[in-house]
């Protein structure tokens, strides 16, 4: 079960200042409040109804041309009531749950939602293994942007157990290479947002996906499937902000601290399964990726000169152990990422067809996932017969397409998953893999359910397989070809 961390809804005293000209509350004009004033009101903060905490900044509004300011100490409930009467530039929503990363885009979206929809904004962050640095300081950033609450959920185990491993069991690979790292992460995040929206009483959800990408579809199809009554706000499809400079200007205008982190020249998405790279020189498919771009794996040329052997234990198509040590799903994948990354495993360079129609070029690092895909496929070679493998592989293409297109909660994918679960019941055993300078190769495989029989496969004659029987089989199997040749020769 995901761990839930709720940060106190309001971190600052709201000083609502009336603007007699407009008669409404504005949330984006702010003045710094002296610490003495903060201390003066601090003793009364606990008497407020709602969830008010003291901060060194207060939301205020210049009241008139004479610059006289009338401060009214308000509870969160009073502020909300006044906001409802005014709404926003584009309409009125009560409370919006925003998929929040703390970067420039989502930091700007917070005041934009408040300004355009007159709503409270609850920021939501999912921990899907993007790294502890990505989660640092989010509470302060969310509050500074104007959010009334930050919710953080640890979804790592759920992500690997309920999303990654089913795709792995199904053998789902999009367009021959892509192991669906971003595609699998979006539905688990969107599902958690729907849950949070229910918990906080929100009537809408919002995301920072652009109108050109796949992620907008993945988020919104999940919202539709799990709660069709929720309103969905996609600022990138509505606002006038065209790029980073516009976003910075908007942030300054609304007193939102601009993240000071150095902007990468690449667009990256990281989770426990993979790391993707897009943009900059990668936009030209003719350019080779730069060596210093990679973050999860070493260059295969720089990998150890000695190979490493590892054993993956699998039960019913699902990995459960590494070198005999049983691990939780997230722990197992974390360990394999480290091992695989050390040997330069799992790099792919792909020109893919996006769902929205355009082609894009991306470079992906999936060290642990590449190891696991090899292990499962090698074990299936022992436990599944020819017809089953062929049907499974054909369905895996459709399964991958559904996941890539954001249809995780589609009945078709769920039905196909039931098939995959049933068909891999006997895929239990272990596989030994050799890792060496970017390559993964199986050196051994064993299963109590193996269909491989040495007494049948041996070149020695045996009682089960009589080699003389092959003559009749070949004549019957080749009969259509023989008849066609006879026709062509007039026989």
From TrEMBL:
Protein name per UniProt: Argininosuccinate synthase
Species annotation: Melia azedarach (Chinaberry tree)
């Amino acid at each position: 079960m995901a761990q839930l961390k709720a940060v106190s809804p309001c971190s600052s005293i709201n000083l609502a200042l009336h603007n007699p000209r407009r008669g409404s509350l504005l949330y984006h004009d702010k003045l710094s409040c002296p610490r003495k004033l903060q201390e003066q009101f601090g003793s009364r903060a606990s008497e407020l109804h709602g969830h008010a905490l003291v901060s060194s900044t207060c939301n205020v509004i210049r009241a008139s041309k004479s610059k006289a300011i009338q401060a009214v100490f308000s509870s969160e409930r009073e502020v909300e009531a006044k906001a409802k009467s005014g709404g926003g530039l584009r309409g009125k929503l009560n409370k919006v749950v925003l998929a929040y990363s703390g970067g420039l885009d989502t930091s700007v979206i917070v005041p934009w939602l408040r300004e355009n929809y007159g709503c409270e904004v609850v920021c939501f962050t999912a921990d899907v293994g993007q790294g502890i640095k990505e989660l640092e300081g989010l509470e302060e950033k969310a509050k500074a942007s104007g959010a009334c609450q930050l919710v953080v959920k640890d979804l790592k185990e759920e992500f690997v157990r309920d999303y990654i491993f089913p795709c792995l069991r199904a053998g789902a690979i999009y367009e021959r290479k892509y192991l669906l790292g971003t595609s699998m992460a979006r539905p688990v995040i969107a599902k958690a947002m729907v849950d949070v929206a229910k918990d906080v009483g929100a009537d809408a959800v919002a995301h920072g996906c652009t109108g050109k990408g796949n992620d907008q579809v993945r988020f919104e199809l999940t919202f539709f499937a799990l709660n069709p009554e929720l309103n969905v706000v996609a600022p990138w499809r509505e606002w006038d902000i065209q790029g980073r400079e516009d976003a910075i200007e908007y942030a300054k205008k609304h007193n939102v601290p601009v993240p000071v982190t150095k902007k990468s020249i690449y667009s990256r998405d990281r989770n426990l399964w993979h790391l993707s790279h897009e943009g900059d020189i990668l936009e030209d498919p003719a350019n080779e990726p730069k060596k210093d771009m990679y973050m999860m794996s070493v260059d295969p040329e720089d990998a150890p000169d000695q190979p490493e052997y590892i054993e993956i234990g699998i039960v019913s198509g699902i990995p459960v152990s590494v070198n005999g040590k049983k691990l939780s799903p997230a722990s197992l994948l974390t360990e394999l990422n480290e091992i695989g990354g050390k040997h330069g495993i799992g790099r792919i360079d792909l020109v893919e067809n996006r769902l929205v129609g355009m082609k894009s070029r991306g470079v992906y690092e999936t060290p642990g996932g590449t190891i696991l895909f090899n292990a499962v496929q090698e074990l299936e070679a022992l436990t599944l017969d020819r017809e089953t493998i062929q049907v499974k592989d054909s369905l895996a293409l459709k399964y991958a397409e559904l996941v890539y297109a954001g249809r995780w909660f589609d009945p078709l994918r769920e039905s196909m998953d039931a098939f995959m679960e049933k068909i891999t019941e006997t895929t239990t055993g272990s596989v030994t893999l050799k890792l060496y300078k970017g390559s993964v190769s199986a050196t051994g495989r064993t299963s109590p359910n193996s269909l491989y029989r040495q007494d049948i496969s041996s070149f020695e004659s045996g009682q089960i397989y009589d080699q003389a029987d092959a003559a009749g089989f070949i004549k019957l199997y080749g009969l259509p070809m023989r008849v066609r040749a006879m026709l062509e020769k007039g026989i």
